[in-house]
Design a protein that fits this description.
The complex is a heterodimer of chains A (110) and B (112).
Chain A lengths: L3 E4 L2 E4 L5 E7 L5 E8 L3 E10 L2 E4 L6 E3 L9 E3 L8 E9 L2 E4 L3 E5 L1
Parallel strand pairs in A: 2-11
Antiparallel strand pairs in A: 1-3, 3-8, 4-5, 4-9, 5-6, 7-8, 9-10, 9-11
Chain B lengths: L3 E4 L2 E5 L4 E7 L6 E7 L5 E8 L4 E4 L2 E6 L4 E6 L8 E8 L6 E3 L3 E6 L1
Parallel strand pairs in B: 2-11
Antiparallel strand pairs in B: 1-3, 3-8, 4-5, 4-9, 6-7, 7-8, 9-10, 9-11
The chains are: A mainly beta (110), B mainly beta (112).
């Protein structure tokens, strides 16, 4: 079955720690995206990539970093510079026919 | 800058009722518009996608319309069921391959 796999489902981060969220797709989609979802805020774009080895900042990129070394993979690192990282993170990929989303990672700072 | 607004923010209806969810966007130059469903703590499931050249799309009990000139879309749900309870998100794409811009969603509760 083709789809997007996000792992882990739940992640806990200590203050000052970097953590990496995984996103893998087997849909052969060129474009991939990371969104953050907070209660009452809707989805906000963090980073996106339209092709391997290229990516662009979204509206809230500060404190986050990404890489796109393979078409199938688009990991997101939440750095210690992100002061309020507790949120639900969603990865997506797309073609001109529409978007497909993963099941999300819930990140909590402890 | 494109902004997407969804009204109402929450809606409660009895089972069997027909209902309409509204979405408006500020810039009519869109490539397509997509409606999603999100269950609590889950990812997004695509419901309907309307290309900018289309007026509506239908899937089962769902019908989505698009009026680009007025910057509006509606999602019509016929004969609502308790299983329809979820948050419904509207999103627009400005150009081919660009990122979606989302509204904040309408949370629907259907009681039996």
């Amino acid at each position: 079955d083709g789809g997007i796999t996000q792992s882990p489902k739940y992640l806990f981060r200590k203050e000052g720690q970097n953590v990496t969220l995984s996103c893998e797709q087997n849909l052969n989609h060129d474009a991939m995206y990371w969104y953050r979802q907070d209660p009452g805020q809707g989805l906000r774009l963090i980073y996106y990539s339209q092709i391997v080895n290229d990516f662009q900042k979204g509206d809230i990129a500060e404190g986050y970093s990404v890489s796109r070394e393979k078409k199938e993979s688009f990991p997101l690192t939440v750095t210690s510079a992100q002061k309020n990282p507790t949120a639900f993170y969603l990865c997506a990929s797309s073609t001109l026919l529409g978007y497909t989303f993963g099941s999300g990672t819930r990140l909590t700072v402890v | 800058k494109q902004e997407v607004t969804q009204i109402p923010a929450a809606l409660s209806v009895p089972e069997g009722e027909n209902l309409v969810l509204n979405c408006s966007f500020t810039d009519s130059a869109i490539y397509n518009l997509q409606w999603f469903r999100q269950d609590p703590g889950k990812g997004l499931t695509s419901l309907l996608l309307i290309q900018s050249s289309q007026r509506e799309q239908t899937s089962g009990r769902l019908n989505a319309s698009l009026d680009k000139s007025s910057g509006r879309s509606t999602l019509y749900i016929a004969a609502s069921q308790p299983g329809d309870s979820a948050t419904y998100l509207c999103a627009v794409m400005a150009g081919a391959g660009t990122a979606l811009i989302f509204g904040k969603g309408t949370t629907l509760s259907v009681s039996s």
